[in-house]
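Long-time lurker. I teach an intro course on protein structure, and each term I like to show students one example going from raw sequence to a predicted 3D structure in token notation. This year I'd like something fresh instead of my usual example. Would anyone be willing to generate the tokens for the chain below so I can use it in lecture? Attribution to the forum is fine with me.
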Amino acid sequence: MESEKKASMVSDMGAWAMNVISSVGIIMANKQLMSSSGYAFSFATTLTGFHFAVTALVGLVSNATGLSASKYVPFWELLWFSIVANMSITGMNFSLMLNSVGFYQISKLSMIPVVCVMEWILHNKHYSKQVKVAVIVVVIGVGVCTVTDVKVNAKGFICACVAVFSTSLQQITIGSFQKKYSIGSFELLSKTAPIQALSLLVFGPFVDYYLNGKLLTNYKMSSGAIFFILLSCTLAVFCNVSQYLCIGRFSAVSFQVLGHMKTVCVLTLGWLLFDSELTFKNILGMILAVVGMIIYSWAVEVDKQSTKTLPHAKNSLTEEEIRLLKEGVENTPVKDVELGVSKG
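-- Reply from a regular --
Happy to contribute to a lecture. Here you go:
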């Protein structure tokens, strides 16, 4: 039992480490690919389509070689999920374009309380006081790290709301699908990736043209840009797989809370690799965020332990209880249901 628990813990840590490393890696690769000082490939939605196309190809090869098994999930549910996921991607891109960086960061922070409320509404899930305190500390810490100027406009606000709602719903749905259909994370991703890839590759160039006024066909591709596109796609496979793995193992709220560790890593690496400014405010926010994550981990563990120690209802009757019930049935006069009189 103890060895199984340790193996599960190692597996959880592995999934989380893969998600953090691949997510931070893809941000660094995309920064080089999309920045004006890099290769100026400013087609974020289309690039995401490439990501899902490569992920779908990996899933197809895995199923064909027998490395993974394909389980049945109704097509309409996969289609609905893909629409929600694509709304999340497009909404985030539009939110970043139309809003200030400060408001964009606030909208991302708001996903934690939104996920909590949605899980409460959809799954009747409740959170302890300790977990709520930890979430608040994490939100404040990451907010201090990242939020600068905050400017709001009507279009940007609507896009941010769509992005937050669809991303939260997507993360909750991943977990519920895995439980509902007893499907592994990679198998679920293999089924949704082709739909997302097709739709993003068809509509992505038009979305990108609206965002930046540039046509993909006019972009001059270089060997360096191709290398970073392939690197980004490779990291995206690990990032997508690990995201599904993490949400299957943890809750959507845990994924959001621990996900802010990536923000801390990105800020630190940006300072180390790209000469980004790291102020006292950033450092203070990072410390707060890390403290909040430690409190959150402790609070979740306390909840698990308290759940285990709760008294459980009996699942079976003892022989003595069965004998007494039999005697009760045999000695009780049978009544006529309609007349309510004893027949014994």
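Some talking points for your students: The first helix runs from residue 2 to 34. Confidence is low (pLDDT under 50) at residues 312-326, 328-344.
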